[in-house]
Design goal:
Blueprint lengths: L3 H10 L14 E7 L10 E6 L9 E5 L5 E5 L6 E12 L2 E6 L1 E2 L5 E2 L4 E2 L2 E2 L15 E7 L10 E7 L6 E4 L1 E3 L2 E7 L4 E7 L2 E2 L1 E4 L13 E3 L2 E4 L2 E9 L2
Parallel strand pairs: 1-9, 1-10, 11-21
Antiparallel strand pairs: 1-4, 2-3, 2-5, 5-6, 5-8, 7-10, 11-15, 12-13, 12-16, 14-15, 16-17, 16-19, 18-21, 20-21
């Protein structure tokens, strides 16, 4: 087991500290929250929700992770089944964002048996619980008067700060045609329809007119609790 002095040295050096194996403790859910590099996240909010009370009042309990990213919540009462969820506020691309953390195990658990649930900051396109996944969402609309089928449009996102481009076909959701699970950083976005380049612009708003170009650079904006969107429009050349 890592000593306190070695753990502190690892934190000061900014290196990853691996999640140590834990055995379930009866009546307790416990675990650790870590960032993309595996470093502990202090101050993450972990919430457990009681699932054995259909139609009854909602029961939940929360705790904050300590400096080692660890938390511990008593789930002995009331007896029944619980689920665990977590979120954390992190600086991403220079902006403070509150994002959901991804658990290593999504399964409900019995409170009397206890459980270990570790969480990680990861950006995923879809989850079993959320069709929108975890991370930023690119929302694409057709320009006024343009009738290009958006299910035939491919977008490519080039991270402004460097990194591999992301090429995706759009998919239809309740939010419109989207790409989900994106790391919420600045991107230069291009679009094609059946291989032919399209024109793109930041989405039209009462304060902003179209500016049609071969690409558009945009950042994600908070549109709701834990929701970050980058909205663009496309049209044929």
């Amino acid at each position: 087991m890592m000593s306190r002095s070695l753990f502190a040295a690892a934190l000061l050096a900014g290196v990853s500290v691996a999640v140590q194996a834990q055995a379930p403790v009866k009546g307790v859910v416990q675990g650790q929250a870590a960032d993309e590099q595996g470093r502990p996240i202090a101050g993450a909010e972990v919430t457990v929700r009681y699932q054995s009370n259909p139609g009854g009042g909602s029961i939940s309990r929360s705790a904050r992770t300590d400096r080692q990213g660890r938390y511990r919540i008593d789930v002995r009462q009331p007896p029944g089944v619980w689920t665990a969820h977590a979120k954390a506020t992190q600086t991403i691309d220079g902006s403070r964002m509150t994002v959901d953390l991804v658990p290593d195990n999504r399964a409900p658990f019995a409170g009397n048996a206890g459980a270990v649930r570790n969480f990680r900051l990861r950006f995923v396109e879809q989850t079993a619980d959320d069709a929108y996944g975890v991370g930023g969402m690119l929302v694409v609309q057709s320009a006024i008067g343009d009738y290009t089928p958006l299910d035939e449009v491919t977008v490519t996102l080039h991270p402004v700060g460097g990194g591999a481009p992301i090429e995706k076909r759009l998919r239809s959701t309740g939010e419109g045609w989207v790409v989900t699970g994106l790391r919420p950083v600045a991107y230069r976005v291009t679009a094609t329809h059946r291989g032919q380049p399209m024109l793109v612009s930041a989405a039209l708003t009462p304060q902003r007119d179209y500016d049609w170009q071969a690409s558009v650079v945009g950042r994600f904006e908070r549109t709701g609790p834990g929701i970050y969107q980058l909205r663009i429009e496309v049209r044929s050349r």
